[in-house]
Amino acid sequence: SSQIADVPTPFSPLLKLNLPAPADYRKRKVALISGITGQDGSYLTELLLSKGYEVHGIIRRSSSFNTSRLHHLYEDQHERPNKFKLHYGDLSDSTNLVYIIAQVQPTEVYNLGAQSHVKVSFEMAEYTGDVDGLGTLRLLDAIRTCGLERHVRFYQASTSELYGQVVETPQSETTPFYPRSPYGVAKLYAFWITKNYREAYGMYACNGILFNHESPRRGRTFVTRKITRAAADISLGKQSCLYLGNLDAQRDWGHAADYVEGMWRMLQQDTPDDFVLATGETHPVREFVEKSFAILGMNIQWRGSGTEEEGVDARTGKVVVKVDSRYFRPAEVELLLGTPAKAEKVLGWKRKVDFDSLVKEMVEADLRAAKSLVEDQN
Ligand code: NDP
Ligand code: GDP
Fold it and tell me: 20 to 30 A from 334, CA-CA: which of 9, 31, 172, 351?
């Protein structure tokens, strides 16, 4: 038993890479992004390329095309050879993560990869725990396995879903967590393992606790994008009705382009820390619906209540929105409202896009896309 007690901790790296001292290593600007094909991954890639970084991304093998959000950047590559590279990988595959880290030798790692849908996490709870929770551990350990824990700066995509049940508002870095979904619980593990590795191994590791952020590139099953696409299609007569769940949930919605700027800033400080990025405003889903339809000249009037509620276009008298209980969640996060005070003070971060401009940009983008599809079909 005395031999077991003698096992040295922390263990020395398994791979002995020939590395310069951390200060020299970081003179290069090399980023590795998991989740690069997602909404935030595409905006972050744009930002980092514009700052002169070499950007590497992890993509999943898929039988269908999953790089559409990066298409425009790939085309640009002819102008910037060797600045942007994609690697096949998965947060469930440790060996592959070690291999990618050893090969890329990044200076900054952004862990954005996740099964990111709250409702889906109730149906795929184990998978969500594996990828969103343990996946974060795998990436952190891949960095340690390569002996890079003092060389690499690490960003973890934490979330306002950690707050879940309302304990206090506005929610800040000191508000206690009470997650309300398998997604939130998995992200809670990721939050703490990131903080633990910072404390245990002196890693420069940060949690960005980001409130909901949207854009025309938002996944189509999240409520904002679902609404703006449907409003555009309904205005063109391509769809008759939009079916939604809880209209009274309130969210603090910002623009993804502003939020990736905050992620980058978190990794440029003297000491690592955790930060909330939020707008400081909250709006119900119902208001997002009303504003989206209003931009397209439809004035929504509500009638009925609960699962019988529906929204009527005042001009035509047609029902264009209906509540469908299939979209309710087994446990709901009713209200999210964050304060960005710490990020504003320490990082000098400020969001630029307000709520009305966000809705307008999304609706107009979906209208343009829907119109060009109609033209293609004609
Ligand atoms: P998306 O759902 O748009 O993107 C998720 C990304 O993760 C995609 O690139 C996806 O790949 C990838 N991914 C999924 N599963 C795996 C896996 N097993 N291994 C490797 N990669 C995987 O999310 P967002 O861009 O909106 O969000 C980015 C991160 O920020 C996520 O971690 C999300 O949970 C978190 N977050 C998001 C907020 C928001 O409001 N957007 C708020 C707070 C946190 P593929 O394209 O192949 O599916
Ligand atoms: P989340 O905050 O990460 O869960 O982001 P979503 O965009 O998926 O959901 C935001 C809120 O909208 C939640 O409170 C949902 O319950 C509510 N909501 C109402 N109807 C829908 C719907 O049809 N789809 C989704 N995704 N959310 C809905």
Answer: 351
Atom of ligand 1 nearest to the CA of 117: 2
Model pTM greater than 0.90?
yes
pLDDT > 70: what percent of the chain?
A: 95
Q: Which residues have a Cβ under 8 Å from the Cβ of 240 and sit 6 or more positions away?
A: 234, 318, 320
**43, 110, 163, 183: which is the annotated catalytic residue?**
183
- What's the average model confidence in pLDDT over 12-24? 83
The answer to whether the CB of 40 is under 6 A from ligand 1 is yes
Largest distance between two CA atoms of the chain? 82
Which ligand is closest in space to the CA of residue 39? 1
Best of 39, 118, 227 for a ligand 2 pocket test (most atoms within 8 Å of beta carbon): 118
CA–CA distances in Å: residue 10 to residues 13, 14, 150: 9, 12, 13
In angstroms, rounded to a whole number, what is the distance separating the alpha carbons of residues 35 and 163?
23
pLDDT recorded at residue 18: 87
Q: Please indicate whether residue 34, judged by its CB atom, sits closer than 6 Å to ligand 1.
A: yes
* Distance (Å) from CA 35 to ligand 1 centroid: 5
Helix (H) or strand (E) holding 277: strand 275-277
- Segment 263-319, tens digit of pLDDT: 999 999 999 999 999 999 999 999 999 999 999 999 999 999 999 999 999 999 999
For residue 11, what pLDDT is reported?
62
